[in-house]
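Per your request, structure below.
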């Protein structure tokens, strides 16, 4: 497409839904001067009052300041004119109307746009013409004072990334996974940013997988705590099986985020792509190795929780058997006086020892002796 065609396309933004004018877009498209770090971990959508979080232009790995501060249209025009940089546009939970103008400006495929707006997608990498579309599931560990049967342990979100020759668009869903610190870190290494949009895609994938490792370590601490309680002396009665089931549910949530990402990372690491240079693919292989480590950890956690649950159920069964043996032993002891009293309570006229002077004392002695002998026998056998 010619430069004049690009500019005509940029001009069409003035007619799009929620982006009522280029002037309005300029107000929210980003801050070119370095300011306080933007962190969207709170429920609010954006401190800028819109879905647009940040819009920055990079040339040769260096952040640029456009003539008019925060002008997305001008930034895109300058990048297309000089053909030596890219625009990084960050969005947080945009609506269809908010994203319509941006999609038209960067010629994004409607299917990818629909996925980015509505979220709830599996991790994947897809190619639409000259644009690469990637979906990553973000996770964070939810701190809790005490693990209960209803505690939330893992919280998930999503990051969608559009990568083109001259742009990177990140669409974030959820209250965590802010890319502000990552942007600042990349700006501190211009050589990496100079490799283009693919370097940003790698950095995002690397941060997402690193977060997986952090969450996996935190989940392991919870599993260790539950395991210690189950195998404590009073584990059968003190441990709550609901906590084990809750950990398994939260581990399943983590698994749904981690495991499906394996295939997309293999594609980015091995499949030749015009937008991903071979040098960047080597770094994707490193990210893939880290992901495999997390996947193995999750599989090990799942097996360990199954073993802990089975051990707890076995402990409960053993405890119930011990209780039944105690009940049976006491029932046997009580059966002796019950039997003797039952015999002498038949009230026959001709029964021996009924009118004997020492009969009562003798019967009481026999009952006591039998009960003591039975008690000592059960104690030796471990029933009492």
């Amino acid at each position: 497409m010619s430069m004049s065609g690009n500019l005509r396309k940029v001009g069409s933004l003035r007619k799009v839904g929620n982006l009522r004018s280029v002037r309005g877009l300029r107000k929210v498209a980003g801050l070119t001067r370095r300011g306080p770090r933007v962190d969207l971990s709170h429920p609010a959508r954006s401190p800028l009052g819109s879905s647009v979080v940040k819009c920055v232009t990079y040339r040769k790995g260096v952040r640029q300041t456009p003539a008019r501060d925060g002008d997305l249209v001008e930034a895109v025009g300058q990048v297309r004119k000089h053909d030596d940089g890219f625009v990084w546009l960050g969005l947080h939970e945009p609506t269809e109307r908010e994203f319509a103008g941006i999609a038209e400006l960067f010629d994004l495929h409607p299917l990818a746009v629909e996925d980015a707006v509505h979220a709830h997608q599996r991790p994947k990498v897809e190619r639409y013409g000259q644009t690469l579309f990637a979906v990553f599931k973000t996770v964070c560990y939810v701190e809790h004072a005490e693990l209960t049967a209803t505690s939330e342990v893992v919280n998930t979100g999503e990051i969608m990334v559009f990568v083109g020759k001259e742009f990177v668009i990140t669409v974030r869903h959820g209250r965590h996974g802010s890319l502000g610190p990552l942007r600042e870190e990349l700006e501190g290494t211009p050589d990496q940013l100079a490799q283009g949009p693919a370097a940003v895609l790698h950095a995002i994938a690397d941060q997402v997988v690193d977060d997986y490792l952090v969450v996996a370590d935190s989940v392991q601490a919870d599993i260790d705590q539950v395991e210690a309680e189950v195998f404590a002396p009073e584990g059968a009665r003190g441990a709550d099986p609901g906590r084990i089931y809750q950990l398994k549910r939260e581990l399943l949530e983590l698994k749904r985020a981690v495991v499906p990402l394996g295939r997309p990372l293999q594609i980015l690491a091995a499949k030749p792509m015009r937008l991903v240079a071979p040098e960047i693919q080597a770094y994707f292989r490193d990210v893939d190795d880290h992901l495999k480590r997390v996947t193995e950890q999750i599989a090990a956690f799942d097996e360990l929780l199954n073993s802990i649950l089975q051990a707890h159920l076995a402990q409960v069964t053993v405890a119930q058997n011990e209780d039944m043996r105690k009940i049976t032993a006491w029932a046997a002891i009580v059966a002796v006086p019950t039997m003797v009293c039952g015999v002498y309570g038949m009230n026959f006229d001709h029964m021996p020892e009924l009118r004997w002077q020492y009969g009562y004392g003798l019967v009481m002695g026999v009952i006591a002796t039998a009960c003591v002998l039975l008690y000592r026998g059960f104690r030796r056998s471990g029933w009492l």
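The domain at 319-381 is CATH 1.20.58.340 (Methane Monooxygenase Hydroxylase; Chain G, domain 1).

Regards,
D.
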